[in-house]
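Researcher: Good morning. I'm working through a list of sequences from a screen, and I'd like to move beyond sequence-only analysis. For each chain I'm collecting a predicted structure so we can compare shapes side by side. This is the next one on the list. No need for commentary yet; just the structure.
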Amino acid sequence: MRFLVVIFLVKASILNAITVDVRLFSTATLSESLVTTHGADFYLIALSSQGNLIDTVSDFAMNSASKTLRVGLKSGKVKANQGNAMYGEFDGLLLVPKNQKSHFIIKGKGPERIYSGALIFKNSSNQLLVVNRVDLEDYVGGVVESEGGHETQFAYFKAQAVLARTWVLKNWNKHSKEGYNVRDDVSSQAYYSKAYLQNSESIKKAVLDTKDTILIDKYGDPIMGAFHSNSGGETTNSEDAWSAKIDYLRSVPDTFSLKMDKAYWEKEIDKQRFVNFFASKLGQNASNDNFRNAVLSYKQDTRQAYFVYADKKLKLRYVREKFGLRSTYFSVVDAGDKVVLKGRGFGHGVGLSQQGAMRMADLGFSYKQILTHYFKDVKYGVVSH
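Model: Good morning. Structure tokens for this chain:
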């Protein structure tokens, strides 16, 4: 009977809040993970292959000591042990705190991380899949800290919190077929811990002050809350960076970004390699003088989406990807057997410039003024529970 009561309480705690499932260590291949709960009490619950709660494996009482749970794979099953205590092998495991305010430290690949919420462990193609099931607002705080928590501007924290919340709701089903909502890396939003570092109290207040607030389009749907590091002085249209035209993601002048440290960059590239790439993409002869001159004297006084020659277009996004550039916003300088690209900005350039937003916050703009600057014809909505 006690096991049934535990499962009922776990289900109730999950249903009483909006939780998001975030894959942790998304860019790593894991075979094992270590979890330390620092004296907090947790339940360890077995899961079926469909993710349903089956039975309590352990009333994981840690008392006052810091102890570590080791989770790995064995013959396709998830195994767990605490010291010499072996808990068995299962289709999946759920580690859930008795007190929802508890946190844990987890190590997979790289530095240890701190999170709140619950942990789900599964076998995914003979890799250990680790998912953090976390309250939406705690997730938002973690994103804000991971994306820009080293800064101190409160209005920026509020703007980033609204965008982080909006983005995850817009992309809720992005990885649903893989068994979670979003990843913890920049292919979704960076989420490398809960908010706990030097500016965490300010971040938590920013999240609380904007609780449930999102940006919506004219149809009442969450917008694609895109953001990047630095625009280089001008953001770009969505269709210039990606493919689809989105009405609220329009290019805007952004002088605020020009005062920040990622506004300008340079990169040196072998000249022939650079010209050959353009020639191969445009069907041109790399030895043709007119073509070479066009490539080697290319300038962008304002942001462009394409390099154009003889009525053919090369999307600058492909140049950025090929040569690992910080942005597509660059001009070319011929330097002997090299070219020097003199560039502006960092990132895809769509939506909010994080450094521009930080500068606006420094100048006294509110978070709503910041968001209105970067997103056109949007409104504020609320998360429906």
